[in-house]
Design a protein that fits this description.
The chain has about 400 residues and is mainly alpha-helical. The protein is built from 14 helices and nine strands. Strands 5-6-7 form a three-stranded antiparallel β-sheet, with no helix packed on it. Strand 3 and strand 4 form a beta hairpin. Helix 2 packs across helix 3 and helix 6 packs across helix 8. The longest helix is centred in the first third of the chain and has 23 residues. The chain is globular.
């Protein structure tokens, strides 16, 4: 999505945003967006059910058809997770057996040990399922998945290795033990596994990974690198680079979103203020970045060379909004301002500029996300994780506003 914004307009809108709510959600905003999400995802469910297969929608292919993934794809948990959230938000009991079916279809993810993304995969699907149903089988899957993830812990560096480097494009980068900022999103699964099993090893691994990431991934301004490559021998840092951003030293927006969200979770689970401080610092960097956007939906990389003619990334915006809603419930100065900022992001995402018309966009909710421009993959397309975090943000907004109304 290429949006040109005049400097004067940008400054005016931004200055108004810094003072509070610049585009408040109108009455009925939540109900309308939740209702739309139910209808749009419902249309995808119709396609899936008519196929006679348990399809898992991810994005659109270049020819406009929907790409469906298998259980081992890192994005396999987002669609089931979205159905769980919609079941919770709407109370539509017809969604419950579907959520269970789509979740069960990826159960083999619990045994994956060759990449780190099982936290995304199982946390979003089985995690939400367990939260809503207390199904004993889901508990077992969560703990088993945490055991699989723990096999990737590398003691010398104190981190969970993200990618294997024996083959594929990762092998061409010269990395030994790459850790990506995305990995912060998998720690919630480990914290949950300790809660469910009583085994503190998962908690200790999560804290170790968070601490080393805090020490090595961030620049003085709060922005984060995408990839830190560690030595397997002594745990030292070998490289600081990117895989999906514009350049090694640039600000890849979705990476910043993962950092804000991931360290917010770490604070919630440990109570250690240093994690929340980092989340706030990274958010503050994005909020004050010279290339910040008037509608608060960031460019795919905030330092990309053709700004303002660079694609936006709705997935990064949705993830940041969801994290900010949680931050607004924490012990932070001017807590309501974080909710106000998140509200403004949702107003943008819920507008025709980003929210698709019903029955279009492959039945995905949001348009204009970016997978990986350096790999020429998924550029300016819908992505199931953009939809997932958008729905999660709606859920968090709803919870906050209901709690306020009940006081």
């Amino acid at each position: 999505m290429k949006i040109k914004i005049g400097v004067g307009v940008l400054a005016a809108v931004w200055l108004s945003s810094c003072g509070g709510v610049q585009r408040p959600a109108q009455p009925g905003f939540l109900d309308e967006n939740i209702g739309f999400a139910r209808e749009q995802i419902g249309k995808e469910i119709e396609v899936i059910e008519k196929s006679g297969e348990c399809l898992n929608p991810v994005t659109l292919k270049p020819d406009g058809s929907v790409y469906y993934c298998g259980y081992a794809d890192w994005r396999s948990g987002f669609f089931p997770g979205s159905v769980w959230y919609l079941y919770e938000l709407t109370g539509d009991t017809a969604l419950l057996p579907l959520a269970k079916k789509y979740t069960g279809a990826i159960s083999e993810a619990q045994n994956l040990t060759w990449h780190h993304d099982v936290g995304f995969m199982v946390g979003c699907s089985f995690g939400n399922g367990y939260r809503l149903t207390a199904e004993p089988e889901y508990k077992e899957v969560i703990v088993r998945t945490a055991q699989s993830l723990a096999t990737r812990f590398r003691e010398p560096a104190g981190i969970i290795q993200s990618w294997d480097v024996a083959s594929g494009w990762q092998s061409e980068r010269g990395w030994e033990c790459p850790v990506i900022i995305d990995n912060m999103m998998n720690l919630e699964l480990l914290f949950k596994a300790t809660e469910l099993s009583g085994d503190s090893a998962f908690y200790r691994i999560a804290v170790s990974h968070a601490d080393r990431t805090l020490a090595e991934h961030f620049r003085p301004d709060g922005s984060c690198y995408h990839v830190i490559d560690y030595s397997l021998k002594d745990g030292s840092v070998r490289h600081r680079q990117t895989a999906q951003g514009y350049a090694d030293e640039s600000v890849w927006s979705r990476g910043q979103a993962w950092a804000i969200y991931g360290f917010t979770v770490c604070y919630r689970e440990t109570g250690n203020r240093k994690y929340l401080d980092q989340a706030l610092k990274t958010f503050g960097m994005m909020k004050e970045h010279k290339n910040r956007t008037a509608d608060l939906v960031p460019y795919w990389d905030m330092d990309a060379p053709d700004i303002p003619d660079e694609p936006r990334d709705a997935s990064a915006a949705a993830c940041i909004a969801s994290a900010l809603y949680e931050i607004s419930t924490m012990d932070v100065a001017d807590a309501p301002s974080y909710k106000a900022y998140a509200d403004s992001i949702l107003v943008s995402l819920g507008s025709p500029a980003y929210r698709a018309a019903l029955g279009t966009n492959g039945n995905f909710i949001l348009m204009h996300s970016v997978g990986s421009i350096p790999h020429n993959s998924e550029i300016d397309v819908p992505l199931n994780y953009a939809d997932y975090y958008f729905i999660e943000a709606l859920k968090r907004k709803s919870d906050i506003e209901k709690a306020a109304a009940d006081k």
